[in-house]
């Protein structure tokens, strides 16, 4: 058992095989910087673009990521050792030219997931943590997988009476050879303008708003470059985007302050460049006052979103409802579409590991970044205790001599 006086070893996992790799690196480094070094020992765990895992202090230096090849040479490649159950054990992958040196070992008590997209946010790495029985932050396998799939998440919300815009979806195999048929159907059932999205990608990558048939065809082909499943939605002409983060688990969930992202071009959708590359962004404008940009918060956003009290409460309640419906945990951000002509609010998507953990939505309500990280770790440990407090095996050996005889007899009688 770990000595309570010892610092908790937190493995901060970031990077990953995903188009959102660089976004994840920034989120991971922000989280590592926010963790209290008197309480936590930080073990950076970087997943390279080819899926290799690395650790080492160089991984905490943002400037090192300007040359990824040099970074990997300076970092320490590691592999999993499943010998320790209940914690994550990583062992240095020792180069063969130094066979006499004992590989270094890295033991992790809690995994802090800062991955965006791909296997890091769709339940894959969460499943690894479940297999190793190690506590990890954020949602479980189910919530992560559902949240990553825009089609399944919309179908579930619509089934539960949560408004979503009209949409159609199809796979690449459905589209191939039937392009004109699908274009006719989309025009007939949705009408222009439409929004085309890869079904399982974030950060506005591969998303386009289209106004005519030629652009629709091209946008669908582009979306298939990122995913074999595509969703096409009816576009809202007078659109406002409203986001709300939720913190907790299904039994204790609370909403954050709302934000309204500001698009660089009001006539277009929010882009990857708007979110992450607007260097002079006025992050977190509150009541007319500007705050300095904070990492991933380079996006222009209005906090709190300029809605009346009733609208604000309705969005927050819907966000908590979605969070609980997806059985989420930790912090998630739920994005909504507001039709400013009708006042109707629609569920758009849920981000089970939001960029920068949406810290900028929690600071205004009295939860600073370091306290947010503390809460994520507390929730991870709580869920781990609850899981291991239940019966997880049945104390009967069906392979014992007596049991095998019984099984053979039953087989003969059948």
UniProtKB/TrEMBL annotation:
<comment type="pathway">
    <text>Glycan biosynthesis.</text>
</comment>
<protein>
    <recommendedName>
        <fullName>D-alanine--D-alanine ligase</fullName>
        <ecNumber>6.3.2.4</ecNumber>
    </recommendedName>
</protein>
<comment type="function">
    <text>Cell wall formation.</text>
</comment>
<comment type="similarity">
    <text>Belongs to the D-alanine--D-alanine ligase family.</text>
</comment>
<keyword id="KW-0479">Metal-binding</keyword>
<dbReference type="InterPro" id="IPR013815">
    <property type="entry name" value="ATP_grasp_subdomain_1"/>
</dbReference>
<dbReference type="InterPro" id="IPR000291">
    <property type="entry name" value="D-Ala_lig_Van_CS"/>
</dbReference>
<keyword id="KW-0573">Peptidoglycan synthesis</keyword>
<feature type="binding site">
    <location>
        <position position="349"/>
    </location>
    <ligand>
        <name>Mg(2+) 1</name>
    </ligand>
</feature>
<dbReference type="InterPro" id="IPR011095">
    <property type="entry name" value="Dala_Dala_lig_C"/>
</dbReference>
<keyword id="KW-0547">Nucleotide-binding</keyword>
<keyword id="KW-0963">Cytoplasm</keyword>
<feature type="binding site">
    <location>
        <position position="351"/>
    </location>
    <ligand>
        <name>Mg(2+) 2</name>
    </ligand>
</feature>
<dbReference type="InterPro" id="IPR016185">
    <property type="entry name" value="PreATP-grasp_dom_sf"/>
</dbReference>
<feature type="binding site">
    <location>
        <position position="349"/>
    </location>
    <ligand>
        <name>Mg(2+) 2</name>
    </ligand>
</feature>
<feature type="active site">
    <location>
        <position position="20"/>
    </location>
</feature>
<feature type="domain" description="ATP-grasp">
    <location>
        <begin position="154"/>
        <end position="378"/>
    </location>
</feature>
<keyword id="KW-0436">Ligase</keyword>
<dbReference type="InterPro" id="IPR011761">
    <property type="entry name" value="ATP-grasp"/>
</dbReference>
<dbReference type="GO" id="GO:0008716">
    <property type="term" value="F:D-alanine-D-alanine ligase activity"/>
</dbReference>
<feature type="active site">
    <location>
        <position position="203"/>
    </location>
</feature>
<dbReference type="Pfam" id="PF07478">
    <property type="entry name" value="Dala_Dala_lig_C"/>
</dbReference>
<dbReference type="GO" id="GO:0008360">
    <property type="term" value="P:regulation of cell shape"/>
</dbReference>
<feature type="binding site">
    <location>
        <position position="335"/>
    </location>
    <ligand>
        <name>Mg(2+) 1</name>
    </ligand>
</feature>
<dbReference type="InterPro" id="IPR011127">
    <property type="entry name" value="Dala_Dala_lig_N"/>
</dbReference>
<keyword id="KW-0460">Magnesium</keyword>
<dbReference type="GO" id="GO:0005829">
    <property type="term" value="C:cytosol"/>
</dbReference>
<keyword id="KW-0464">Manganese</keyword>
<keyword id="KW-0067">ATP-binding</keyword>
<dbReference type="GO" id="GO:0071555">
    <property type="term" value="P:cell wall organization"/>
</dbReference>
<dbReference type="GO" id="GO:0009252">
    <property type="term" value="P:peptidoglycan biosynthetic process"/>
</dbReference>
<keyword id="KW-0961">Cell wall biogenesis/degradation</keyword>
<dbReference type="GO" id="GO:0046872">
    <property type="term" value="F:metal ion binding"/>
</dbReference>
<dbReference type="Pfam" id="PF01820">
    <property type="entry name" value="Dala_Dala_lig_N"/>
</dbReference>
<keyword id="KW-0133">Cell shape</keyword>
<feature type="active site">
    <location>
        <position position="356"/>
    </location>
</feature>
<dbReference type="GO" id="GO:0005524">
    <property type="term" value="F:ATP binding"/>
</dbReference>
<comment type="pathway">
    <text>Cell wall biogenesis; peptidoglycan biosynthesis.</text>
</comment>
<dbReference type="InterPro" id="IPR005905">
    <property type="entry name" value="D_ala_D_ala"/>
</dbReference>
